[in-house]
Amino acid sequence: MKKILYIFFILLFSFNLNSYESFDNENTLLIGIWVNSGYQNGITKYVKSKSFKKDTRGIEFKKDGVIIQRKDINWCLTQPYTPMYKDCNGYWKLNTKSVFTIKLDKCGRAITEQKWKIIKLTSQILEIKSI
Length: 131
Prior knowledge:
- There is one protein chain.
- The chain is of the alpha+beta class and 131 residues long.
- Residues 5-25 have low confidence and may be disordered.
- It is globular.
- Helix content is 22%, strand content 47%.
């Protein structure tokens, strides 16, 4: 009986380690700068980049839970329209393997809280959907 319990605990412990490592690897994939590459059917698509592009939206996830979102803050759509990009700061927290919460400063206007679901995450592609 002791042998069976011993084997059970070893298996249980090893499964917990494997799931933690998997979670940590996915969390690590998320870290970095992502530049907007499109939007379709409610899914925002990003590609990994070494830096933000001058006139393109993007997000940066940092290891310490800080998020920077580069966004167009120009609210006036009068023609000719000229986008005004600014980096807005906030915080992010992974709730599960595929859902995370962000609290984001709308560049001095207000603080918003959103939940995003990861649709696809690889080393070069991030697809998210607001939920």
